[in-house]
C-alpha cells in the first residue's frame, strides 16, 4: 500500500514544478509537489521575466501577476546594457536592451498586456509555490525523490523523508520530473538528452554593496566587464548583475573548465568583486558563492508513458537570453491543461503526446540560442584587440588604438559598434521569447499554408492566428468602456471560440457543444453592441479571418484551429476539430 496517493506528483519546487502545481490546482486537479530541501530557491538565479511568462502569471490571476510586479524591478530600470573596463573604469559601449529601445518598446507594448521585468528567482518561486498551496497543492519539503516505477495504471514513486530518514511511497496517475538540470527522473526514464554538459566553468558571487554611484545614472540589469580573462569559461564575459537596485549584486565570472573548480572563499570573492567594480577598497557583504557549469544539452523526448519532464530537466543551457525559468514556466502551461483534460475525462490520453511534439523543439531552440549567445561576445573582444593573449600592455594599446583619428581607428570603432549592436540577439530577442508556434496532433490545420516569418524570427514577434500560434494580443472594449486583452478572454482553463457578427452559427454551435462534450468552451463575439467591441479596428486587422469566421483557442491561449469564413455545418465541423484536438 502506498503511503500517499494523488493524481499528479511533481518532483521539484523550482519555477517549473511550482508553476505546474499552481496551474493544476487552479484547474482543480489533485497534485502533490516535493522538494528535497526545506525551502525554495536560496539564490536569485533566474531574473529576466519575459512577457509570455507574465501572461502565464496573469492567467493564474491578476493577483498573481500583481504580486510579481510588486517585487520585480521594473522594465525601465533594466535596459542600459553597459560594456565597460570595470564599473568605475571606462565605458566601452552600451546597447538598449530588454524592450527599452523605443522601437523595441513599441513592439513589446503591441504584443502583450504584460511587461517584461526583473524578478529574481527568490521572489518568483514563493509567488508560484504559495499560489499552488493556497489552491490545493499538497507540498512536502525535505522529501527527496529516489526512484519510480510506472505501470499501465499509474506511477509508484519512492521518496526519502529527510526528517525521519524513512522511505515514503507515493502512488500517482502521472509523474512530472521538474527536478532541474541533473534530473534523476529523466535519467531513470532514460529519456534521450542530446548535447554536452559542462562546456564551461562559472562562479557566482552574491553580495551586498551600495554601487549606486557607478550605475544609477545608467540603470541596467547587466554590466559587462571586459578585462583580460573575461572571455574564459563563464557566459562570454565578466558580469556584474543587479539583483536589487543598487545594493545587491551577483558577479558571474568564468574559469577554465579543464582546470579544477576554484574554491571561492571570502577573500577570493572580495578580490573578484573589487576587480570587476574597479574599486580596490570596496567592502562587500558576501551572501554566498558557488561554482556551476555551463551546459549545452536538451531532451529530444520529454515524456514516456505517464512520466514527463519539464524545465531544466529537459533544457540545460547557460543563462544567456534569460530563457531558463521562462521556458520552464511555459512548459508547465503547455502540459497542465492537457493533464487536467485527461484526468477529467474530457480528452483521450493521446493528447498528452502533444506535449512532447510541441515542447521538445522549443527545448532545442532555446538551448541552441543561449549557447550561441555566448560565442557572440567574441567579435566585441576582437574589435577591441583583446583576443591575442593576456599581455595587459598589449591589450591596453589595442584598446587605446580605437581613440585615434585615422581610418584604422574609425574602422575599429565601427567594428565595435556593430559587434555590440549584434548582441540584440541576446539582450533584445523578442521573437525568441514570443514566437513559439506548435505543430502536433492537438493543432488542426485550417488548410492554409503556415505563414512564414517576414522579419527575423529571433528578434521580432510576428502575430498570427494561424493554428499553432499564440493568440495575438489586442485590446477590445466592453460596454462600460473597460479594456480587455484578447488573451484575457482566452485561457483561464477553457477553450474559447472567437467570432464576429456574421459568426452567430459558430457561437450557437459552440455553446451547445461545450455542454454536450462536458468541456469548458467559452464564446466571445467581437463587434459593435456585442460583449466586446473592437473600437480601434485592431482586432479586425489582427484576426486574419472574415466576420463569419472563427478562431478556437486552447486553455494555453494557443490557436488550435480557425476558419476564415462560415461552414455549411458549423456544429459538425467544430465537433470534428474538438474531437481531434482532445484525442477523443
Ligand atoms: C546565474 C544564473 C542566471 C539565470 N538567469 C535566468 C534568467 O534571467 N531568466 C531565466 O528564465 N532563467 C535564468 N536562469 C536559469 C534558471 O535559473 C533555470 O532555468 C530555472 O531555475 C529552471 O527551473 P526548474 O524548475 O526547471 O529547475 P530548478 O530551479 O533547478 O529546480 C529544481 C527543483 O527540483 C528539486 N530537486 C532536484 N532533485 C530533487 C530530488 N531528487 N528530490 C526532490 N527534489 C529535487 C530542487 O530542490 C528544486 O526545487 C539563470 C540561471 C543561472 C545559474
What would your notes on this structure say?
It contains 19 helices and 25 strands. The protein is an alpha+beta fold and 584 residues long. Among the domains are: 4-73 and 116-194 and 299-372, FAD/NAD(P)-binding domain, CATH 3.50.50; 378-422, no CATH class; 470-581, 3-Layer(aba) Sandwich (Glutaredoxin). The strands form five sheets. Strands 1, 2, 8, 9, 10, 11, 17 and 18 form an eight-stranded mixed sheet that branches. A hairpin with a 5-residue loop joins strand 20 (475-477) and strand 21. The two termini are 33 Å apart. Residues 11-17, 34-37, 45-48, 121, 144-145, 178-180, 184, 204, 252, 292, 311-313, 319, 322-326, 328 line the site of flavin-adenine dinucleotide.
User: Based on the structure given, which CATH architecture of the domain at 4-73 and 116-194 and 299-372 is correct?
Assistant: 3-Layer(bba) Sandwich
- Portion of residues in beta strands equals 15-25%
**Cofactors, ions and other ligands in the entry:** flavin-adenine dinucleotide
Percent in helix? 25-40%
State Rg: 25 Å
Terminal CA distance reads: 33 Å
> Would you identify the CATH H-level superfamily of the domain at 4-73 and 116-194 and 299-372?
FAD/NAD(P)-binding domain
Amino acid at each position: 500500500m502506498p503511503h500517499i496517493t494523488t493524481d499528479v506528483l511533481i518532483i521539484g519546487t523550482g519555477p517549473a514544478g511550482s508553476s505546474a502545481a499552481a496551474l493544476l490546482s487552479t484547474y482543480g486537479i489533485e497534485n502533490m509537489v516535493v522538494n528535497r530541501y526545506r525551502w525554495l530557491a536560496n539564490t536569485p538565479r533566474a531574473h529576466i521575466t519575459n512577457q509570455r511568462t507574465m501572461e502565464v502569471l496573469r492567467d493564474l490571476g491578476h493577483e498573481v501577476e500583481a504580486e510579481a510586479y510588486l517585487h520585480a524591478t521594473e522594465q525601465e530600470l533594466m535596459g542600459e546594457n553597459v560594456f565597460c573596463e570595470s564599473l568605475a573604469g571606462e565605458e566601452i559601449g552600451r546597447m538598449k536592451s530588454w524592450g527599452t529601445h523605443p522601437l523595441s518598446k513599441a513592439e513589446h507594448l503591441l504584443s502583450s498586456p504584460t511587461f517584461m521585468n526583473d524578478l529574481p528567482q527568490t521572489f518568483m518561486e514563493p509567488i508560484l509555490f504559495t499560489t499552488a498551496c493556497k489552491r490545493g497543492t499538497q507540498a512536502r519539503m525535505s522529501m527527496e525523490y529516489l526512484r519510480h516505477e510506472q505501470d499501465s495504471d499509474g506511477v509508484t514513486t519512492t521518496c526519502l523523508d529527510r526528517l525521519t530518514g524513512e522511505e515514503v511511497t507515493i502512488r500517482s496517475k502521472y509523474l512530472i520530473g521538474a527536478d532541474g538540470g541533473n534530473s534523476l527522473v529523466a535519467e531513470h526514464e532514460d529519456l534521450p538528452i542530446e548535447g554536452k554538459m559542462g562546456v564551461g566553468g562559472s562562479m557566482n558571487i552574491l553580495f551586498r554593496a551600495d554601487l549606486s554611484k557607478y550605475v544609477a545614472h545608467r540603470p541596467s540589469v547587466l554590466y559587462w566587464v571586459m578585462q583580460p580573462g573575461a572571455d574564459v569559461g563563464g557566459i562570454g564575459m565578466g558580469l556584474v548583475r543587479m539583483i536589487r537596485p543598487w545594493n545587491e549584486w551577483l558577479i558571474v565570472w568564468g574559469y577554465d573548465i579543464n582546470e579544477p573548480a576554484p574554491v571561492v572563499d571570502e577573500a577570493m570573492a572580495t578580490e573578484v568583486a573589487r576587480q570587476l567594480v574597479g574599486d580596490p577598497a570596496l567592502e562587500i557583504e558576501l551572501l554566498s558563492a558557488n561554482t556551476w557549469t555551463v551546459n549545452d544539452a536538451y531532451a529530444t523526448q520529454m515524456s514516456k508513458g505517464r512520466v514527463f519532464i519539464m524545465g531544466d530537466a529537459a533544457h540545460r543551457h547557460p543563462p544567456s537570453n534569460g530563457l531558463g525559468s521562462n521556458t520552464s514556466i511555459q512548459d508547465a502551461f503547455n502540459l497542465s491543461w492537457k493533464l487536467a483534460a485527461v484526468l477529467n475525462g474530457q480528452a483521450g490520453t493521446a493528447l498528452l503526446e502533444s506535449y512532447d511534439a510541441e515542447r521538445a523543439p522549443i527545448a532545442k531552440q532555446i538551448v541552441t540560442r543561449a549557447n550561441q549567445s555566448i560565442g557572440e561576445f567574441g567579435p566585441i573582444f576582437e574589435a577591441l584587440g583583446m583576443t591575442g593573449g593576456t599581455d595587459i600592455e598589449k591589450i591596453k594599446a589595442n584598446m587605446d588604438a580605437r581613440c585615434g583619428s585615422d581610418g584604422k581607428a574609425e574602422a575599429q570603432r565601427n567594428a565595435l559598434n556593430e559587434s555590440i549592436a549584434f548582441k540584440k540577439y541576446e539582450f533584445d530577442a523578442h521573437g525568441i521569447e514570443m514566437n513559439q508556434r506548435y505543430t502536433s496532433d492537438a493543432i488542426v490545420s485550417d488548410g492554409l499554408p503556415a505563414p512564414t516569418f517576414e522579419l527575423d524570427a529571433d528578434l521580432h514577434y510576428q502575430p498570427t492566428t494561424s493554428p499553432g500560434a499564440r493568440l495575438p494580443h489586442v485590446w477590445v472594449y466592453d460596454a462600460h468602456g473597460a479594456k480587455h486583452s484578447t488573451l484575457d478572454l482566452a485561457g483561464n482553463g477553457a477553450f474559447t471560440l472567437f467570432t464576429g457578427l456574421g459568426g452567430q452559427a459558430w457561437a450557437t454551435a459552440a455553446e451547445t457543444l461545450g455542454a454536450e462534450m462536458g468541456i469548458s468552451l467559452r464564446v466571445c463575439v467581437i463587434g459593435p453592441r456585442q460583449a466586446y467591441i473592437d473600437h480601434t479596428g485592431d482586432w479586425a486587422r489582427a484576426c486574419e479571418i472574415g466576420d463569419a469566421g472563427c478562431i478556437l483557442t486552447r486553455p494555453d491561449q494557443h490557436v488550435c484551429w480557425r476558419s476564415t469564413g462560415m461552414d455549411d455545418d458549423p456544429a459538425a465541423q467544430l465537433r470534428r476539430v474538438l474531437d481531434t484536438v482532445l484525442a477523443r
